[in-house]
Amino acid sequence: MPTTHTTIPDVRKSVLVDIPAEQAFATFVERPMEWWPVDHVFVTDRRSITIEREVGGRYFECGADGTEIAWGTVVEFDAPRRIALTWRVGPGWRPILDDDAASRIEVDFVPVGPGRTEVVLTHAQLHRHGEIAGFIHAALDGPSPGDTLAQFADVVRRHLPA
Length: 162
Hints:
This protein is an alpha+beta fold. About 20% of the residues lie in helices and about 35% in strands. The strands form two sheets. The protein has a seven-stranded antiparallel sheet, covered by helices on one side. The chain has a two-stranded antiparallel sheet with strand order 6-7. It is globular. About 30% of the residues are buried.
């Protein structure tokens, strides 16, 4: 039976950070090299990760040898509220080139009080990964906040004024 949207639920995780949404959004977009898990790489000897700040832009990593590999495309850029990206991961956690076969990473920055933001990261449309959708869902569906948001919260804490 083919995998459908209704058989693969979204995976949603969140974390609270003690900065306004504007700063949380900027930290997410401007400092991915600091919060991106070190074992999530497509290149050898990663030197940078860039999120282009516009719809249609890429988010990609660069290796020491100059190789660039895109993790996906920016499909929503609504600073400081939301960013959504395609997630081009294929079998064996290797890159794919086709956004039509990519799921989405949706990140919402929700003010929850003065100087406090809930960052909600959703892996959506996982069914688009086809045969490996169930495997990807199982790999992502651990306790909140997960590695990525836990590292993001650590970056926020490190950059708070003393």
